[in-house]
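Hi V.,

You were right to ask for the full record rather than a summary. Here it is.
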Amino acid sequence: MSSVPPARRLRLGLPRRVFSQVLLMQLAIAAGVAVLATGLFLAPLGDQLDDQAMRRALAIAQTTAQQQRIADDLRSTAPTPDGPVQREAERIRTATGAEYVVVLDERGVRWSHTDPRRIGGLVSTDPGEALAGHEVMEIDEGTLGRSARGKVPLRDDEGEIVGAVSVGIAYDSVRARLIHAIPGLFAYAGGALAVGAFAAWLISRRVQRQTRDLAFSDIAALLAEREAMLHGIREGVVALDRGGRVRLLNDEAQRLLGIGEEAVGRSPDEALGAGRTSDVLAGRVTGTDLLTVRGRRVLVANRMPTDDGGAVATLRDRTEVDRLGRELDSTRGLIDALRAQDHEHANRMHTLLGLLELEMYDDALEFVGEVVGDHRATSEQVTEKIHDPLLAALLVGKATVAAERQVALRISDRTRLPDRLVDPRGLVTVVGNLVDNALDAAAGTPHARVEVELRAEGRTAVLMVRDTGPGVPSDRREVIFAEGWSTKEPPAHRERGIGLSLVRRLAERQGGRASVGEARGGGAEFTVVLPEALTEPGAGPALTGAPAPRTAEEESR
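Predicted structure:
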């Protein structure tokens, strides 16, 4: 028994490398085409040579029959080996190179022949068609063997048929011409095969470089692994061709971007619409870990060019991380505020204890009233003007943070917001981001102050936040709403440049707008208009803290 392993024995049939397989296939194709072309050329060549021989025989017969002297001699002389018909026929045969020129009368009796002994005998083939006035071309067997033959009627000067002329060309001469042509044909076929083999080698070398000399089975395995990897990872992958059109989307990218397979073959602008996400995917915005917002999702995008002129972009969902980071910022601010209040509360308790020990009871009572009254005034001021509990609680907490940062947070006298909000949490996000930015801008300025104004105009909610900070230059009043843009250093746990972008995105999603201008007396004034943000009067208050309607993308998570 053979000791060769089965796997190795299987490889002996066909090389595994793409280069070798393509080269062998190309050579086989080139050889097959050469053989087929030669066969297709040789197949009709014999017929063409036969046709040429038969037409030549017919032409010689027609020329012979047009000589009136032969018809006259046919009537006036006897069929003899040395008769005038025999002499003329032999002269024509010798001059034209024909195998034979036979003249026969109406009875089929030969008057000429290459073998004088056959003169006076009947012809071996039926002369009926020629004697009936028809011209005949054929390949046939006669007394002289296989030949290309032409037969025509022989007429006298009055046009009556007195006999026929039969001319033959040896078929062996036709076959010899065909055989003589074959070497040249094979030479051409060999040259074509050599050119085809060289072209096949060049193509195979190119394929070898492009496939890195992998086997077809390896390529198939890589494709299968790529499909499984692309659709199995929890990171969006978008591949673009050299024309900037999407050529591949994995399942996660479709979920994050909210698009489907119809986006393949289209540019990012066509598939997603104009915006930062399209700019990042198209390469108009460069960098690493670029932040972008798509719907309600905060995405981190990276783009890598490919050798063919295209690019591959990856997308990571940072929505939850960003939300947790903002909650962490709020929690840290609240902890700092509580720590400050703890110190202040300790000071107040020490003051109260001193007053009691000094038996200054009236002063102690007045001091407690003032402390409680200040806190109650702040809470009552907010709840009287803002009836939604989520917004009221947010602003009370922001007031505490503002006090710790030495900033006065004031609720405008024009503030009036009923408890009829359609999306309280969305408005909380808008107010919280704007107040945080205003506190950052106003902190450290003389007479630092932030003013919040919230009012309802029918079903439209209007929000204005003013601060005493340095303001926003006119040439930057649009760019500050761009995703990833910020004038502040990012904290360690997250990146900045998302808050104002989310504010504008939330406003535009409800058909509203967000803008910034200059406040009276200096500083910035942010304005957000949210149409259809409140229910109709008398329709009943919206569910306090009810979550905003979930998108189809979120439902699928």
